[in-house]
Amino acid sequence: MIEALKQKLGEEVEKLQYELNVTLPNEIRKAVELGDLRENSEYKAALERQQFVQARLGQLRQRLSKLSSIDPAQIPSDRVGLGSKVVVEDQRTHSKETYYLVFGDALEFEEGHVTMASPIGRALLDKAVGEVAHLKLPTMVRQLKVVELKTIHDLSEAEL
Description:
This protein is an alpha+beta fold. The chain is 41% helix and 19% strand. The chain has 3 helices and 5 strands. β4 (132-136) and β5 (141-150) form a beta hairpin.
């Protein structure tokens, strides 16, 4: 999971790097050739895109650095943590829900994916099977009992 995310982020870095070093300079050069830069919308758009790409590259590089520092051996194998698939039962309604704990900057969130920083992610974090997580909502407190847990160590690549 961590390696797959690093690969996706690395691919985005490559695309943005190409855009920053090849595509945008060409667009800026063409816009300069058109003449008056004060009223040249192509020039302004290219400069704004350049600033955006530079900022996004900074974010991606920072995220890749943080991902590189994660040691999968430090992720617990018997408690909810990064990459866990958790089935919980609402203690009031007895309905079951499945959640997957993912990184906050996952490129695509699928149904059931929650970040570790989200309220439900924080409530579930470090819970073991049989424990109850208390999810504080504005109108009530949900009690979610962990009934099934697969950690990042147990999941296959297809399940991640």
